[in-house]
Amino acid sequence: QVQLVESGGGLVQAGGSLRLSCVVSGRTFSRFAMGWFRLAPGKEREFVAAISWTGSTYWEDSVKGRFTISRDNAKNTVYLQMNSLKPEDTAVYYCAGRTGVSSPAIVRATDSYDYWGQGTQVTVSS
After folding, report:
1. How far apart are CA 116 and CA 24, in angstroms?
2. Is the Cα torsion angle 70, 72, 78, 84 positive or negative in sign?
3. How far apart are alpha carbons 35 and 50 in whole angstroms?
4. DSSP letters of 76-121?
5. Can you tell me the distance from the alpha carbon of 4 to that of 50, in angstroms, rounded to the nearest whole number?
6. What is the enclosing helix (H) or strand (E) of 70?
7. Residue 29 pLDDT level (bands cut at 50, 70, 90)
8. Is the pLDDT of residue 26 over 90?
């Protein structure tokens, strides 16, 4: 059974930083492509960033240059470093995992992911 557990969310002022972590258990993490998505009140779940098992990265335009996605295969963990946070970044952040090939279109599609975490709340105050 695959489990994804996020942590690192919280309350931060605009301009601040947070680092989210997602630990994966139950499958060979190194072969997973991992993505981060977010869900804000009144909005649909939105792609944030993804990293393939080969290390290729993909970004949503609004976070490019502010957020960094990385992975540590030895720790079965994917990270989302979020800098220069804005109130509009407020959302529940979810990590997700999938096997198979990655492409810009595939990693942005929520239904291409096989596994999801429970989410962690990020609140950015103005």
Report:
1. 10
2. negative
3. 4
4. TEEEEEE-S--GGG-EEEEEEEE-S---HHHHH-GGG-SEE---EE
5. 15
6. strand 67-72
7. confident
8. no
- State pLDDT tens for residues 73-82: 999 999 999 9
The two three-digit tokens of residue 69, written as one number: 């996605």
Q: What is the pLDDT of residue 110?
A: 94
**Sign for the pseudo-dihedral over CA of 50, 52, 53, 54:** negative
Q: Which two tokens stand for residue 37?
A: 């998505």
* Spatial contact of 90 and 122, defined as CB atoms under 8 Å apart: yes
Rounded Cα distance, 57 and 124, in Å: 25
Structure tokens of 52?
């393939």
Q: How many residues belong to the chain? A: 126
The upper half-sphere exposure of residue 119, i.e. CA atoms within 13 Å in the direction of its Cβ, equals: 12
Residue type, 103: S
Rg (CA), the chain: 13
- Terminus-to-terminus CA distance in the chain, angstroms? 40
